[in-house]
Design goal:
Blueprint (H helix, E strand, L loop, with lengths): L2 E6 L1 H4 L8 E4 L3 H13 L2 E7 H6 L1 H5 L8 E5 L8 H14 L9
Parallel strand pairs: 1-2, 1-3, 3-4
């Protein structure tokens, strides 16, 4: 069974612990990069990461996009929202169904 982790600043991730998810509070990009590598090495199936932190380590995240696992999902955090998480979900839906179901065909 795959494990699920949440990476980001403490204020953004601590609530996920009540859902039984493993939290990894980090704020510095290098710590986030190291945490992500560790979680991938430990075969986590899903890794949620705050959008702001993901922006800081997007080169590292790109390395895993072509892999089936882990699924790296961007979530908004308490210190800002870039909109990248919503855009990523929109892109996945478009790819799966062939059109933009939220706004019609572009």
């Amino acid at each position: 069974m795959y494990k699920i982790a949440v990476v980001g600043d403490y204020e953004s991730v601590y609530g996920f612990a009540t859902l039984g998810l493993e939290i990894h509070p980090v704020t510095l990009p290098e710590a986030a990069r190291n945490t992500l590598k560790k979680l991938v090495d430990e075969n986590y199936g899903v890794i949620y990461i705050t959008e702001v932190l993901a922006e800081a380590i997007k080169d590292e995240i790109e390395l895993y996009k072509s892999q089936i696992s882990p699924a790296i999902v961007l979530i908004p955090g308490t210190y800002g929202n870039t909109g990248d998480g919503v855009q990523a979900v929109k892109n996945f839906v478009e790819q799966a169904v062939g059109s933009d179901i939220l706004f019609g065909n572009d």
